[in-house]
From TrEMBL:
Keywords: Cell membrane, Membrane, Transmembrane, Transmembrane helix. It comes from Phenylobacterium glaciei. It comes from the Bacteria. GO terms for cellular component: plasma membrane. This is Cytochrome b/b6 domain-containing protein. Its main location: membrane. InterPro entries: Cyt_b561_bac/Ni-Hgenase, Di-haem_cyt_TM, Hydrogenase_cytochrome. Residues 16-267 form the Cytochrome b561 bacterial/Ni-hydrogenase domain. It is found in: Cell membrane.
């Protein structure tokens, strides 16, 4: 642990993120971007979801449908329980490189590669999936051995007692200052824990269940309720992680992007001096 460095004006420079946390964070981000884009490329080949073991093509749980309009133009619709939405321009039909509309589940700018190529999409997806797994294993192993995960991410009774106050402060966009900002607050801990130990393992498990070679040995699809159920859960867990990433980026921007990014690049985070409440005596 490196010593704190006092700053002019009462602030304090503290070493918040060790090198392994910073490196695995950025490798995770790059891997997730490639996994998302290549995953949507793979999904373009059959943009429908089912529950159970087999795909009942006439009765999907949810699907993106490409069709033709009254003038012969490509159209798109998203159909799911309680939803039947015209998504032309984004899902089902979108502009191609020459500007003309073409029928495809996701637009070219959301897939890797841009052109429809299932084989290339799978190669990108599988390579970065294993990089993501190895990177996550390194993060977990070093975090558990150093006990950083237990120390930084498991909420204490005192943390939970301050949960209502933390929710109210975040609703007012009032972020911790001083010593309260040295570690993750209770809302961060309660958000990171289910992502690290829930959504990410579920995404990995369901991804392995769709691999015929792995599933032949471990029978993961059967444990999850069927191969199509595993595929649907894989998409839903990925969507949950994407929602977490969007929320995470929004909170970084609101909390102060320069300080937050500096800490995740150099490890050093500025603790701003506490300010007294206006209504304090």
């Amino acid at each position: 642990m490196r010593p704190d460095k006092p700053l002019e004006g009462g602030g304090l420079l503290v070493y918040r993120h060790p090198a392994v946390v910073r490196i695995t964070h950025w490798v995770n981000l790059a891997s997730l971007v490639v996994l998302l884009l290549s995953g949507l490329q793979i999904l373009c080949s059959h943009p429908a979801f089912y529950w159970g073991e087999t795909a009942r093509f006439a009765d999907p749980f949810a699907q993106i449908v490409s069709g033709m309009g009254s003038q012969g133009e490509p159209t798109g619709r998203l159909i799911a329980p309680g939803i039947n939405l015209d998504t032309t321009g984004l899902l089902g039909a979108s502009a191609s490189a020459d500007g003309s509309m073409s029928a495809r589940a996701f637009p070219a700018w959301l897939t890797l590669p841009r052109e429809l190529d299932l084989g290339a999409g799978r190669r990108w997806h599988f390579f970065f999936a294993w990089l993501f797994v190895l990177n996550g294993a390194l993060y977990l192993a070093t975090g558990l051995i150093s006990r950083r995960l237990q120390r930084e991410m498991v909420p204490t009774r005192e943390d939970l007692a301050h949960l209502p106050r933390a929710i109210a402060d975040h609703a007012r966009l009032k972020f911790p200052r001083g010593e309260d900002a040295r570690r993750y607050n209770v809302l961060q801990k309660l958000t990171y824990l289910p992502v690290v130990f829930g959504l990410l393992p579920l995404m990995l498990l369901t991804g392995l269940a769709m691999s015929p070679a792995v599933d032949a040995r471990l029978h993961l699809a059967m444990l999850l309720g069927g191969r199509q159920t595993a595929r649907t859960l894989h998409f839903l867990s990925t969507s949950g992680i994407l929602a977490f990433v969007v929320l995470h980026v929004v909170m970084v921007v609101l909390a102060g992007p320069v300080n937050e990014l500096r800490s995740m690049i150099t490890g050093w985070f500025v603790l701003k001096p506490e300010t007294p409440e206006k209504d304090a005596p």
